[in-house]
Design brief:
The chain is an alpha+beta fold. It contains 3 helices and 4 strands, in the order ββαββαα. The two termini are about 35 Å apart.
Length: about 120
């Protein structure tokens, strides 16, 4: 599931609809982080949750994008993970609470109703 992303080619930012309830300050911080990344490095950056609720940084670049900085990308992501560690951990906890664990509990409740 995609939390957010930015695209240097279309110069657009995206926030997943499921995360509209996040506080404005967090949404602003995510937007700044993603947009600054693509301005500095290029390409497309998305922050995506895996099935366990871990937040992954996914980077794509067009083959013809000779300005994309592959080494800079790795370094920038490492820097963002360090500087935004608290925010990223809180977002992972949020996702696990409301989407992973909440979803499992809802499934269990439905199964229990079926057995009754």
């Amino acid at each position: 599931m995609v939390l957010c992303g930015a695209n240097s080619y279309t110069q657009k930012y995206y926030l997943g609809e499921q995360f509209a309830m996040l506080p404005e300050q967090i949404k602003d911080e995510l937007q700044i982080m993603c947009v600054l990344y693509v301005e500095d490095i290029g390409g497309v950056l998305t922050l995506e949750y895996d099935e366990d609720g871990n937040l992954d940084f996914r980077v794509e670049a067009e083959e013809t994008d000779y300005l994309f900085d592959e080494i800079g990308s790795v370094l920038k992501i490492k820097q963002m993970r360090q500087q935004k560690q608290e925010l990223l951990e809180a977002l992972e906890l949020f996702y696990r609470t409301f989407f992973v664990e909440g979803g499992k509990e809802a499934m269990l409740t439905e199964q229990e109703k079926g057995q009754a």
